[in-house]
Amino acid sequence: MAVAPMDTIAPAPQPSRHASPAGGNRRAKINGHLLRLPFYLLALTMIAPFYWLLITVFKPPRELARTPPSFVPQSPTVANFYDTEWTPKGINPGHLAGIFQRYQVDLGFWRFMLNSLVITTAITVGSLLICSLAAYVISKHDIKGRRTIFLLIIASMMVPWQTTLIPNYVIMRNLGWLDSYAAYIVPALAKAFVLFFLVQFLQSLPNELIQAARVDGAGEWRIWWKIVLPLLRPALAAMSIFIVLAEWNNFLWPLIIVQSDEMANIPVALARLNSYYVGPDHQGAIMAGGLLASVPTITFFVIFQKYFTRGIALSGLKG
Amino acid sequence: MASPIPLRSRLRRYGTSYAMLLPFLALFAGFLIWPLANSLYLSFTKFDGINPAAFTGLENFQQLASDARFRHALGNTALYVVASVVLGTLLSLGLALAFNGTGWLHRIMRTVFFLPSVTSSIALMLMWKWVLYPSDVGLANTIVGWFGGKAVAWLATPGLTIPILVVMSVWGGMGYGMVLYVAGLGSIPEEYYEAAKIDGASTWHRFRHITLPLLRPVTTYVVVTGLIGAFQVFEAVYIVFSTGANTIGGVLDSGLMIVPYLYDQGFTHFRLGYASAIAWVLFLIIFVLSLVNLRVGRAMKEL
Question: B199 — contact with chain A (CB < 8 Å)?
Answer without folding.
Answer: no
